[in-house]
Amino acid sequence: MRLIDEHWIAYPQFIAGRLDFLERFKLDWLRRPVVRYLDVILSRAGPEGDAIMARVGLEPRDLCTRRAGRRDRTSGCRRCAAAFLAAANTLAGAGTPTVFIGPAGTAPSSRLRCFHALPQADLAD
């Protein structure tokens, strides 16, 4: 701890959690290092830039929905994914080009594109 100026935690504090009593005590006692919680770090898209948008047939202003959350297999997670997929189907059925990223079944509409996963740069795009 005496050899570093800053300690970076690559998650927001609400995900990584607060420092515990012993960690805070050591930081206070040594008066170092500075602890910084970082937001999500995403890789930059390559020179192709909008390749994912072109691949799925979307324009930059079209709507994209996706399932947020972890990859766990709990029933709550499955219900959440099903609700997001239902919303994506509704949007696509109404004529809105839509992308769903998550555990998907068949896409009943030509306006709905489903992906199980995407590379980080494509997801950020």
SSE inventory with pairings:
Blueprint: E1 6-9, H1 13-16, H2 21-30, E2 34-37, H3 51-56, H4 75-93, E3 98-101, E4 112-115, H5 120-124
Parallel strand pairs: 1-2, 3-4
Please supply descriptive tags for the structure shown above.
two-stranded parallel ribbon; two-stranded parallel sheet; alpha/beta; 125 residues; 5 helices
Question: What is the N-to-C succession of helices and strands?
Answer: EHHEHHEEH
Q: Walk across the major sheet and give the strand order.
A: 1-2
Distance between the termini: 38 Å
Q: What low-confidence regions span 5 or more consecutive residues with pLDDT below 50?
A: none
Structural class: alpha/beta
Task: Please characterize this protein's 3D structure.
The protein has 125 residues and is an alpha/beta fold. The chain has 2 domains: 6-37, no CATH class; 51-124, no CATH class. It is built from 5 helices and 4 strands. The strands form 2 sheets. The protein has a two-stranded parallel ribbon.
Structure, briefly:
The chain is of the alpha/beta class. It contains five helices and four strands.
